[in-house]
What we know:
The structure holds two protein chains of two kinds.
Chain A: H1 12-15, H2 38-49, H3 51-54, H4 70-74, H5 93-98, H6 118-129, H7 154-166, H8 176-188, H9 194-202, H10 208-217, H11 220-233, H12 251-263, H13 268-277, H14 314-334, H15 353-364, E1 366-372, H16 377-401, E2 424-429, E3 439-442, E4 454-456, E5 463-466, E6 471-472, E7 482-485, E8 489-490, E9 495-511, E10 526-540, E11 548-554, E12 557-559, E13 562-564, E14 570-579, H17 585-588, H18 592-605, H19 617-627, E15 635-641, E16 647-650, E17 658-663, H20 685-692, H21 700-713, H22 734-746, H23 751-759, H24 762-765, H25 774-777, E18 790-791, H26 794-804, H27 856-860, H28 879-887, H29 889-904, H30 910-922, H31 928-944, H32 952-967, H33 970-973, E19 974-975
Antiparallel strand pairs in A: 1-15, 2-14, 3-7, 4-5, 6-14, 7-11, 8-11, 9-10, 9-11, 9-14, 12-13, 16-17, 18-19
Helix pairs in contact in A: 2-6, 7-22, 8-9, 8-10, 11-12, 13-20, 14-15, 16-19, 21-22, 21-23, 26-29, 29-32, 31-32
Chain B: H1 14-21, E1 65-70, H2 85-89, E2 109-112, E3 119-122, E4 127-130, H3 134-137, E5 143-149, H4 156-165, H5 175-183, E6 193-196, E7 221-223, H6 242-261, H7 265-287, H8 295-301, H9 308-325, E8 330-333, H10 349-373, E9 380-385, E10 389-395, E11 399-403, E12 407-413, E13 420-422, E14 424-425, E15 432-434, H11 439-449, E16 458-461, E17 464-467
Parallel strand pairs in B: 1-8, 1-9, 5-13, 6-7, 6-8
Antiparallel strand pairs in B: 2-10, 3-4, 5-12, 9-12, 10-11, 14-15, 16-17
Helix pairs in contact in B: 1-7, 6-7, 8-10, 9-10
Amino acid sequence: MFGRRKNSCIALGCLIVFLSSCSDRHDFAEPLPETVDFNFHIRPILVQNCYLCHGPDPSGRKADLRLDTYNGATSALKEGGHAIVPGKPSKSQLIYRINHKEEDLLMPPPESNYKLTEREKALLEKWIDQGAEWKEHWAFITPSAQLSDKSTTVIDSLIDVKLNQKQLVKSPEANKNSLIRRVSYLLTGLPPSPEAIQNYEEDNASNAYEKMVDQYLNSKAYGERWARHWMDLVRYAETKGHEFDYSIVGAWQYRDYLIRAFNDDIPYDQMVREHLAGDLLETKRYHPESGIGQSPLATAFFAMAEGTHSPVDIKKDEADRIDNIIDVTSKTFQGLTVSCAKCHDHKFDPILTADYYSLYGVMESTRFTPLDAHWSETKEQTAKEIEEVQAYMRKTISDAWNEPTVAEDKFNSKAKEVLPDTTYQVIGDFRGVDLSGWKSNGVAFGNRTTFGNPIVDPVTGTLLKLKDGHASSRLFGTGIFGTLQSRDFILEKDFISVRARGAKSTIRLVIDNFQLIQDPIYGELEMRVDHEKWQTYTVDVTPWKGHKAYLEILPGGYQGHKYQLPDDAYVEAQYAISYDSKIPQALQGSSEFRSTIDRLNARLKKGKLASRFPELKVPIKKERQLGKNLTSTFFIYGITDGFGIDSPIFNRGNHQEPSEEHIPRGFLSALPQGKVPFTSEGSGRMELANAILHKDNPLTARVMVNRIWHHLFGRGIVETVDNFGLQGKLPSHPELLDYLALTFQNEGWSVKKIIRSIVLSNAFKRSTLHTDALPEADPTNVYLASFPVRRLESEAIRDGILVASQSLNDSLYGRPVATYLTDFMQGRGRPQNSGPLDGDGRRSIYLEVRRNFLEPMMTTFDRPIPFSTFGKRDVTNVPSQSLIIMNDPFVAQQAERMAQRLLTQENLTFEERVTWIYLHSLARKPSPNEVQKAKEFMAMLKKLEAHKEYSEHKELELWKHYCHSIFNLKEFIYLV
Amino acid sequence: MSKYHNFMKRPLSRREMLGICKGGFGALAFTSLFGALPIGCDRKKPIASKPDLYLGPHYLPKAKNVIFLYMDGGVSQVDSFDPKPRLARENGEDPRKKFKVDATQFDNVGKILKSPWDFKKYGESGIPVSDLFPHIASCVDDIALIRSLTSKFPEHTNANYFLHTGSGIQGRPSMGSWMTYGLGSENKNIPGYVVLDGGLIPPGGLDNFKNGFLPASYQASILKAGAEPVANIAPKEGVPNLQEEKLRFIEQMDHSLMGKMGEVDAVESAISNYELAYKMQSSIPELTEFSDETKATKKLYGFDSDDPHTRGYAAQCLLARRLVERGVRFIELTCPNVGADRWDQHSNLKKGHEANAHAVDQPIAGLLKDLKSRGMLEETLVVWTGEFGRTPFAQGTDGRDHNPSACSMWMAGAGIKGGTIFGRTDEYGYRVIENEVTIHDLHATILHLLGINHELLTFRFGGRDIRLTDVHGHVVKDILA
């Protein structure tokens, strides 16, 4: 828009009669700063008012002018002059145009609805006058410590600097009841017990507070609280939503992973690594007690997205799914909105469309799959042992026969003859020794075929015969989990066939990574293998020619999209081919490999080769015994690596318009460490994790410590916790943010340590009470002169009610409690049965999250709808919330339970009863006035209930109403 | 910035509102906007990121309220409002020999199928309507018919999300949420966005009506027939005045807390919400109580029909009018369950469409006539549409498959030029060939009639100022009065 009118700027430089820095004379509410800082004062003005037309995205750029780079802003304009001449506001076109009287020339143009304030204009002018120093966006500069002070009071001293500048009066420390309630709720999501309150009240030691904090940090409930925070980031859900709300297999095990990880204070860098590449880590993390592998469980977050029912355009479906993953991943770990660069370069941030598609490739080469959720170190070793046993057996025989061919892996598929036939293509050939370049995930298919494996009578040790070659999921036994996946290929021929046999197992053709295979449209892409004889399984792929696909062979299968693996399930395959009309004869016949085995077996049968191997009796037994330890019954839907795919750029985000050029996989180019293309054969997720955890990555630590700060104070140092980009808010305390980030990074990435240091600060301990002047001086309490009043989150409200009524079942972990279904929760995929009204008394984190049947109490109190990253929940305030606490049967039920508990306490005076209720619900004792009010209230209730005949229930009724009223107090749902 | 304020007065600030409310329970007359202003939630920010702007109409609105008659499953255009004689001539022929057939979800392409219904011309405008809708046909002069609506999705769920939220992906705010976010409701005791659950929640579930990334206060309230029409609306105390006593006690205690704490806006707002909630308890059940409606009115809607589904839908339509009278901004009616899986006739087209049409035809005409006779149609926009159309060829032998390339819909009432036909499909009614109206255009037009510039109604989420119409949408000016 700059220079819309031709010739508008003829020799403007000399015509300008400037307002000549008169702006300083303006009487601004907030005086202009001594030194105008580009990041803190100027860029926000430019971003807000100029970048839509003069920002990083070239597609919308006007007048060829960009104001997001120093070069752009200072280079010569087409129409003459320069937008910015450092040190010379009077020569800067920018200053001229923002002050222009003519609407046609005024910037920003009036029709854009943007308008600069006088103060903004003055700031721009002063900044140019001071030399127009340009800085990179603050969040992209690696944090550096300029603090010499390493003491525990750094947090307070940095906060005090601002408070002193603003001359704000700090509130005193909160009283002990408020403190313990605050700490208990914010660290564990639960209210303190009356015993804990008493202990703390009576503890006069100087470190009483510290001890109390540590007690909550070390409580198991801590992990539940902080896991739930994290679940908001990764759009945690247990179903896929869309039309039929299919299950996400075993999602709850990811939730349990999080709870354990937070409780065990697993270093954050490790958590990040596990989330992004837990399946690829060379050294995986195992649970110290159960031995269950933890690292791969974290990858389930990739699979938490919406799952579409029978989309017609599956390439688009894939693009949408990957977009969601990029969105969630970039916001969660980097506080960046990379998804904005899907259709064009980011309008505000230095994120290129090429960056988006370099990440797209990473996600496109990642495949969804069930994982053995109970994979353990023991299993890993067992599998190795069996493989050694099998190798030993083969070697024993070949040594005896002096026939090395059986043991040595010379018969791999690459060695096979090349057939001149072009009417078909071999996708996989497992008749040799190797797996034909397919990926064997899990353990079932091992790392070779059955080729040459001996069949030995375990009683006599007689060798009966050698097996011919085929891929087999029962190398170690049936009911063992694993998948065998081909490389990606383009569907070019009409049919695909797999020669296979098995029981209760599956062959799937996965097109464009589309997993929810079913009718209508896709049903035939999944073939059930349930026959012990070799058969040819064929799928007609003509409707999908040109699409990308891979084949997957796996024991067990999906029922209603839930993966199941029966004990006796297995699958074996000889080859997979694609062809146009008829299955080629040549392939069906015997092969070179087969003839080798046949020849040996024939000689064995004729007694020409030794057949007595009593020394194999023990290994055979061991093999069978060990195999039983490998079966799997718990699954979690996660990911595995495919084969690296570099994606083209989709023109304006349209998958039907891919570019010629393919973008190498990689991460963001604007980061200080620079852009290094990923070279791994797989997806590159390990490299992605490394880029995010690179020591010079300026975002990772900042984003996480800011999230922690946000959860403790209700507002982040950067308020836009998921957006550290140019449209995000600037940090209120930049030095503090950097101090925390560096401490976090340098001291072992311990989340607990950071929380502890913040909670021990004076700022955290301050009372919510404040001087009358404070709301005027700092209306949003940015500077933390007092502790902000906060409403509890939906989970904490419900859990608090359960604790008060003493109905909380505080057991950890496990399958979710089925959703309680009201009549208002209707639609496809509605479960047959409702869950219990009280959720079995379990904490809210254990209630099922069904996308299409979300718990009304949770959503009404602002638990986010799980579709994207929500690091910061809304705090709305609407009557439907009041209606829930007033009228919801759950709340009434809990009030009654609380009254029942109360009345089981014998010999309590009225005052003691009220005290009991206050301690359990508000973490404090009632004042005499409050006891008096309670008395009057109960008397009133009695009158109203007077017409009822006397019964034992009556007293219960009365106290129930009282407890119910207490739940309805604002003090109950607020931290005050 | 005064142009934003020339129609609607600035909503009261929370502090002003509290000034009014000091009277306590029962003693206040709010000018606040239920659902519009999630109290304590800052709604100043979104428009063009200018902190000094409140939301409100951008220019003089024609419509104050919207009634959205959702024809779940997809009504066949060639059997309702878009007659195609060629289908009769070529009945039974192979469509693939006539035109390119797109992939469909069921991919069971049959022969070209003529409409089982005759079309007649109605009204002064002479708009042809099939025999499926004899009652609606009598209102054609108030209707602007669009024969060129398209969708981007041939699947129900995506198409539903697209129609309702402007995006085929789950989790975005629905149009009703956007409208209440933009304009609020004029009634403090009833939510601003109401979905009347007629029996069928569309595929995609309640997310069709959710607030997405907008604050939770903008989600739809589901209203159902029955003793408790809205969740948790009925007090459970069972003894007269008991709840009032409890609320009085709660208020007392809350105020003493405030006395100790000083001013805390959020807490004060939470306190005042109890007053609103209390009032809703009586205003909502009163809504569904039709005793003050005349016999003639009820008859007009079809209350005396032999068809229970007609009676059911008649009650929904009457309820919609009553909601409009009470200032509810956006009302959506979902379909009754006539036992034919919505309008989604993959087979048995004749039977299924007839059952559905019979259920909704008279009540809808009744609604239009009733609104008109009360002078309410002038400020109420009635929108009738499915999520997509159906194929002109058969699925199997006697059904029709989904067709996102052409769909007929209509609008009536506020700001609409009655007796208009807009847009044209090819000779088979398969594809739009003239004046395509996208879902984004539809949204832009509805917003326009409400006085909102769809490009300015934004909400900052994930680093973008997001709109209902994404980066698309044009107002369909030709159908405006």
